[in-house]
From TrEMBL:
Family recorded in the similarity comment: Belongs to the protein kinase superfamily.
A single cellular component GO annotation: membrane
Protein name: Cysteine-rich receptor-like protein kinase 6 isoform X5
Organism (species): Dioscorea cayennensis subsp. rotundata
Pfam families to which the protein is assigned, alphabetical: Pkinase
Keyword DNA-binding: no
Domain Protein kinase as annotated: residue spans: 35-310
GO molecular function, one term: protein serine/threonine kinase activity
Subcellular location: Membrane
SMART domains given in the database record: S_TKc (SM00220)
Length: 362
């Protein structure tokens, strides 16, 4: 069973120095049938996730770090320190940690419908996401991001918001997960710059891909891409070698300016969708993926728009990636941005304006 950690909580560098619960390795082995393949929910670059059941009947998800993964340890520590301080209905809840016999694991609440991408992009399952559920998912993710950016005791930039990091509970309510790449901002800090770009291309804002600059507006860009995916049922990478458009953003933009938005909505919706809500969501999505971060709305504004039908919206201009790709500029980096998965690497040597208030701490 969980036990109280006998460590010095005053040491901020100690991975155990958070208000969390330590689980015995034996408890987690028993809960997951010794981490059996039958209980494996998924696998990532730094480890696997297993479903388990505690003696009191609670279902859990156990993220087990691969042995010897230095970067994985860094991300686990980062996630533990940040998530332990957060509590919101649209964030996955951290229950504890196991640090025993050279094992390193995070223990979360189990979310039964797994990740959004497993349903949204599966033609056999996507009908489970009717219009009401999609609008609720879009609104719930917005609420979770608003909490991270503005309403929690600490300001957090997620940096890897994508469909596979949105989990769905038994009622299809969304919960943001995976804070391994998240960054904490303090005081009046509004942004930072890094020479090491990490995240998932296709969801990453242009200023981050090209210049390593990230802020709350970077998350908002990712949210915009995610909104368009939820509406269309199409991955942002599904336009590879397509004659329709370079990417999901440009595809949506072309239909927006033509007034043919009904043609981009997921066909499984049929005619069971709200035109006013669909217009509002597409407009939000396009505003969130504007090239200039200053032209993207804040999450408080997005939430207000989603819940207040009287709130007026500005018209979006030609969005990021779409503008560059159609403007005759060298678009190799941007095409890569829609053809690759999770990456980590140095940013290209491209001159950028310094538009953030602070540099990332070393």
């Amino acid at each position: 069973m969980p036990r109280t950690p006998p460590f010095d909580f005053s040491n901020p560098e100690d991975i155990t120095s958070v208000d969390s619960i330590l689980f015995h390795l034996s408890t987690l082995k028993s809960a997951t049938s010794n981490f059996s393949e039958e209980n494996k929910l998924g696998q990532g670059g730094f480890g696997s996730v297993f479903k388990g059941t505690l003696p009191d009947g609670r279902e859990i998800a156990v993220k087990r770090l691969l042995s010897g993964s230095g970067q994985g340890l860094k991300e686990l520590k980062n996630e533990l320190v940040l998530v332990a301080k957060l509590e919101h209905r649209n964030l996955v809840r951290l229950l504890g940690v196991c640090l025993e016999a050279q094992e390193m694991m995070l223990v979360y609440e189990y979310v039964p419908n797994r990740s959004l991408d497993t349903i949204l992009f599966d033609s056999a399952k996507s009908e489970q996401l009717d219009w009401g559920r999609r609008y609720n998912i879009i609104s719930g993710i917005a609420g979770g991001l608003l909490y991270l950016h503005e309403d929690s005791q600490i300001k957090i930039i997620h940096r890897d918001l994508k469909a596979s990091n949105i989990l769905l509970d038994e009622e299809m309510n969304p919960k943001i997960s995976d804070f391994g790449l998240a960054r904490l901002f303090g005081g009046d800090q509004s942004g930072a710059t890094t020479s090491l770009v990490v995240g998932t291309f296709g969801y990453m804002a242009p200023e981050y891909v090209m210049c390593g600059q990230y802020s709350a507006k970077s998350d908002i860009f990712s949210y915009g891409v995610l909104v368009l995916e939820i509406l269309t049922g199409r991955k942002n990478t599904s336009f590879r070698d397509s004659e329709q458009a370079e990417n999901l953003i440009s595809y949506t933009w072309e239909h927006w300016i033509r007034g043919t938005i009904s043609e981009i909505l997921d066909p499984c919706l049929g005619d069971q969708w709200s035109r006013s809500e669909a217009l509002r969501c597409i407009q939000i999505g396009l505003l969130c993926v504007q090239e200039d971060p200053a032209n993207r709305p804040t999450m408080s504004m997005v939430v207000l728009i989603l819940y207040s039908y009287s709130e007026s919206l500005q018209s979006p201009s030609r969005p990021a990636y779409c503008a560059r790709l159609s403007g005759g500029m060298d678009s190799d980096a941007f095409r890569k941005g829609y053809n690759l998965s999770t990456v980590q690497g140095s940013i290209p040597e491209i001159p950028c304006e310094d538009s953030v208030s602070e540099m990332e701490p070393r």
